[in-house]
Amino acid sequence: MPTPPSSPHAPVTLSIVIHGQLALVLPLLEQLDRHSR
């Protein structure tokens, strides 16, 4: 998906989305790690 040049906040929103996904995934990974031990 090509981003329009008139949106300077695209990298910021992208990083926010990535951090949001990490915040959701990290607790799941911790639970899986606890169960595997």
UniProtKB/TrEMBL annotation:
Keywords linked to the UniProt accession: Membrane, Transferase, Transmembrane, Transmembrane helix
Keyword presence, Membrane: yes
Molecular-function GO terms, alphabetical: transferase activity
Superkingdom as given in the UniProt entry: Bacteria
TM stretches of this protein: 12-29
Protein name per Swiss-Prot or TrEMBL: Glycosyl transferase
Native species: Acidovorax cavernicola
